[in-house]
Write a structure and sequence with these properties.
mainly alpha, Recoverin, domain 1, two-stranded antiparallel ribbon, 2 strands, globular, disordered C terminus, calcium ion binding, EF-hand domain-containing protein
Length: about 200
């Protein structure tokens, strides 16, 4: 089975087998990994709570667009999610932010992604919509390298490579370093380690 994923970057045979085992474990109570189960995994294991972001991460994982994450999609998605290099992460984030999949991040898509970022209490003389539009304008200014009022992949790539902090400027869609370590420890655990842990528990 692992040979099927030989072109997946950074993931070795042991890690592929570990992820496949985790996939089957998470599927114990369901026959398929649908959007609901996948979003539960993002929430429970990766600490994600933004429904728009989780829905779009599901869309990117679901390569064949059948509303199910199969084993190959699970492996390929997590290879970027947990171990992807900067170029792979740039492509992943751009695809997540491109809500309608047309190859561009529009001003409206930016607004949809950023509208819930400002959660502080506004004063009576403040217009929340004006503040949100200002935030979108600022993001567009940072990312729109050719000034055509939309962000292409080339724009996004150039902007992020010039300033890596812009990678997730439209919302967190990749686990941070600490979460990656915690999840990797859980998902890449050797099956023999689990057996040893059970032996120790049973002997007490």
């Amino acid at each position: 089975m692992a040979s099927k994923f030989k072109n997946v970057p950074v993931i070795n045979k042991f890690e592929i087998e570990s992820l496949l085992r985790k996939y089957r474990e998470l599927m114990k109570k369901k026959q398929k990994m649908d959007r609901v189960l996948f979003c539960e995994i993002l929430c429970n294991h990766f600490g994600m709570t933004d429904s728009i972001m989780m829905d779009n991460i599901f869309r990117i994982f679901d390569r064949d667009n059948d509303s199910i994450i199969n084993m190959e999609e699970w492996i390929r998605g997590l290879s970027v999610f947990l171990r992807g290099n900067l170029q792979e992460q740039i492509k992943f984030c751009f695809d997540v932010y491109d809500l309608n999949g047309d190859g561009y991040i529009s001003r409206d898509e930016m607004y949809q992604l950023l509208k819930d970022c400002l959660k502080y209490k506004y004063t009576p003389d403040e217009d929340p919509e004006d503040t949100k539009r200002e935030l979108v304008d600022y993001a567009l200014k940072q990312l729109d390298m050719d000034s055509d009022s939309r962000v292409s992949f080339a724009d996004f790539e150039t902007a992020v490579k010039g300033k890596e902090l812009l990678l997730e400027c439209l919302g967190p869609c990749i686990p941070d370093y600490r979460v990656k370590l915690i999840v990797s420890d859980k998902f890449f655990r050797d099956e023999n380690d689990d057996q040893e842990i059970m032996k120790i528990k049973c002997s007490k």
